[in-house]
Write a structure and sequence with these properties.
The complex is a heterodimer of chains A (150) and B (343). Chain A has 150 residues and is mainly alpha-helical. Chain A has 8 helices and no strands. The longest helix of chain A has 27 residues. In chain B, β3, α1 and β4 form a beta-alpha-beta unit. The radius of gyration of chain B is 18 Å and the shape is globular. The chains are: A mainly alpha (150), B alpha/beta (343).
Amino acid sequence: MPKPQTAQQKQYQQRVNEKMPRSNTFSQCIRAFVSGGIICCIGQAVRDLGEGPLGLSQDDTAAFTAMVMVFLGATLTGLGIYDKIGTWAGAGSIVPITGFANSIVSPAMEFKREGFVMGVGAKLFSIAGPVLVYGVSASILVGLIAYLMR
Amino acid sequence: MKSKCAGKQTLVFSAPPQVISSAAIVGEMEGQGPLGSYFDEVLTDDTWGEDSWEKAERKMFEQTVRRALEKVSLQTGELDCLLGGDLLNQIISANFAARELKTPFLGLYGACSTMAEGLLLGSMLIDGGYASRVACAATSHFSTAERQYRLPLEMGGQTPPTAQRPVAGAGCSILAESGYTGQMLYRNVFVAAATIGRVIDLGITDASNMGAAMAPAAADTLSTHLSDTGRSIRDYDLVVTGDLGGFGSEMFLELCKDNGVDAERRHLDCGNLIFSGSQKVDSGGSGCGCSASVLNAYLLERIEQGDLRRIFFMATGALMSPTSGMQSESIPGIAHGVVLERK
């Protein structure tokens, strides 16, 4: 149980909350919308390429698109560009699958010095891990509900 | 018997130790800031030729101590004690640098308050007659601090406007007993008194708002120091805080005002001094290298030149760890102060 706060603590926190400079949520939303939209447009173009000129099946197109986008995200992370995009784009570059690639490649690069087992191996999913755990858990739950409601 | 104390927390040195030399080494971005020309060395490579950032950080610590000693033609063997620390787990930068320096060593952890803590303890050793030459040093590195406390560097994301950038920098002061006759870089800078800070926690939990978490400790140390010594803020040319940054400084000045101390015109913060507004660092610099490099490159020189007669140098530390943060604990703050005087 956390300790109850004193009047002085409450008053100070209130003061900090009132005075602290805040992020400009509106402009951040616009940037996220634009940058996320651009990444999705690139994804759509890759998809069209798979379906059209390459003549892939529907399933293969989905896999092809994911592979290309993850490759792009990982490459840009390795080149030190994706973090700069992220500073401007915020959620716009975190939410798409390229952001997922960024969250796996960045710890892999950083923890290489700790070795391939306890460094790269152990830290690879330190950021993406929770997304996988709860993503997979949610899909199992939804699957069960869908099964029972059939 | 407490014969060298004033009030509750203040120590008054009977033979004030002298700061005879100093050195500071910083990273590239710090070198591009407004104080760039004052530093002894500005690194262009964030690993400084080593194979990890951690090794670069310890090299900065070691080389800063060596540089400060060289300036006054002292050898490491002539030091009675080295006091220092950094931000990494188990203070590996200071410990591993001390392994190379081979001097008697006391490792300190006071988060970003380490520089003031070192000066305070070093002066006590000297005034107490336990040492005649002491080196006090602190270091931090942007890349090691980010990976320990936050996210990998290549991970793209945004920071709130209250966030601060850990400084890549190291600073070292060499203290000697009063009446030192050897070679000196500074002849007029003395540590006259010091105030040991209390750990104060007003419940801030946001690690991106460390300035606000540390401001109450800084305001407390300043008021205590003034009441312990019976002085007023007008007796000081400057009150210099370590790394409160833009917003933390604002809260600090407000809290001082609540305590009846108007510090507005006499306050500077090392976190605000080290970067310029155009460097896009949100609320300024942080890390123990921030106050250490600004003090040792810039402030001591200004006292020596006579621009400043007496300053209260108060390095501020946020005493959380990644674990306490994840367990939703609030951030305790501390601030130790030392009075640096020109005589």
